[in-house]
Design goal:
Elements (H helix, E strand, L loop, with lengths): L3 H8 L3 E2 L4 E2 L6 E7 L2 E8 L6 H14 L7 E7 L2 H13 L15 E9 L6 H14 L4 E5 L6 H6 L6 E3 L2 E3 L1 E2 L5 E4 H5 L10 H13 L6 E7 L6 H9 L4 E6 L5 H14 L4 E6 L4 E2 L6 E2 L7 H7 L4 E4 L4 H8 L9 H11 L1
Parallel strand pairs: 4-5, 6-12, 6-13, 7-11, 7-12, 13-14, 14-17
Antiparallel strand pairs: 1-2, 3-4, 8-9, 10-11, 15-16
Helix pairs in contact: 7-8
Bound molecules: adenosine-5'-diphosphate.
């Protein structure tokens, strides 16, 4: 049977291509788990997951697969926190190596960057990202939306008619909604809303980098990031590269309790940014006649989840046909919801 020592020894053969030192000595191996013949390894990268991270992952996968008694191998990439990075810098110093680690992109003229994420698709993440942008804009803030959910048409669809971005002196000028929210989305460039976009991880990552760094966002109070669902390279890249101030997790009660918890906990671990809280969407239905609240999917689990991962529960939102209608018709700026106003007050005060 394969042991943790066997796995660690094998990982000593995996060299960080940039630093030229093995990942065990660099203390990048955060966790090794063995269940039967399945091996799970969590590797904490310094910052940039792509393309370096993928190479480290492939090398680690190969090194462990070759061990006797190994069935399946799951390599999970994570990001070092500040403390781990500092420790690594000390280590590099002691080895006489250069200590310049890749760092986050500059903040530019953006005060706060908030990422909206979810464990799976269809929970209303894009709708909530759009609603958040609209509500902040109503409060008088200058707001932008970076649609990093490259594969879905949601953001441009939710905001309705948007002009195609154009380039001036090497910078991309984003589109703007009727209410003046700046919007950048791959779907604004492809033209056809229905065109399926097939992206591989590294391409998604470089598109997100470009949408942040090469877009003329100007002066903003808030930039809202609509991230793709899940915990793939795209989320990692954003967390590593962009100076994100906080993240909001959107869940829905249909998500299996255990699954969302583990996904959210994983995300928490992965992130070097604070989680501002959890929003449970599609939590209940309110009878339009008598006002009775019906929990279609059982009692709300969002609060429990928030407690479990030690984060704030920002509130729950009902299934609201007016919201889906507004999203479908591209009229999110005409929609408003008092429950959501309360949620926004919890986020920005
Ligand atoms: P995600 O970004 O998580 O994939 P979307 O924001 O695209 O999800 O939402 C999926 C669908 O559900 C959209 O058609 C949206 O209009 C609808 N929707 C989202 N939240 C609600 C809600 N609270 N009530 C009714 N419909 C909703």
């Amino acid at each position: 049977m394969v042991t943790k020592d066997d796995v660690t020894n094998a990982l000593k053969g995996v060299i960080d291509p940039e630093l030229g030192i093995d990942i065990v000595s660099l203390e990048m191996v955060r966790e090794v788990r063995i269940e039967g013949d399945s091996v799970t390894v969590v590797i904490a990268l310094t910052t940039d997951a792509c393309p370096l991270g993928n190479r480290i992952r492939d090398d680690a996968q190969q090194a462990i697969t070759q061990l006797e008694g190994v069935g399946s191998v799951d390599i999970q990439l994570s990001v070092m926190n500040e403390e781990e990075r500092n420790k690594l810098i000390e280590k590099l110093k002691s080895k006489g190596k250069p200590t310049q680690l890749p760092s986050k992109l500059p903040k530019m003229r953006i005060e706060k960057i908030i990422a909206v994420l979810s464990g799976k698709g269809g929970v209303g993440k894009s709708s909530i990202a759009a609603m958040l942008a609209v509500e902040l804009s109503r409060r008088g803030y200058k707001v932008g939306v970076l649609d990093a959910d490259i594969t879905g048409p949601s953001i441009p669809k939710i905001f309705g008619e948007l002009a195609e971005p154009f380039v001036v002196e090497g910078k991309i000028v984003p589109s703007a909604s009727k209410g003046g929210i700046k919007i950048m989305s791959m779907n604004l460039l492809t033209g056809e809303e229905e065109a399926p976009i097939i992206w591989r991880g590294p391409l998604v990552s470089s598109a997100i980098r470009q949408f942040y760094a090469d877009v003329e966002w100007g002066e903003l109070n808030y930039l809202i990031l609509d991230l793709p669902p899940g915990t793939s390279d795209a989320q990692l890249t954003v967390m590593q590269l962009l100076p994100v101030d906080g993240a909001i997790i959107v869940t829905s009660p249909q998500e299996l309790a255990g699954m969302i918890v583990s996904k959210a906990v994983h995300m928490t671990k992965m992130m070097t940014v604070p989680i501002l809280g959890i929003i449970e969407n599609m939590s209940y239905v309110k009878c339009p006649n008598c006002g009775e609240v019906i929990h279609l999917f059982g009692e709300s689990k969002g609060k429990l989840l928030a407690e479990k991962i030690n984060t704030k529960f920002l509130g729950s939102l009902p299934i609201d046909s007016a919201l889906s209608k507004a999203c479908d018709e591209g009229k999110i700026e005409e929609y408003s919801n008092t429950d959501f106003k309360e949620i926004v007050a919890k986020i920005v005060g």
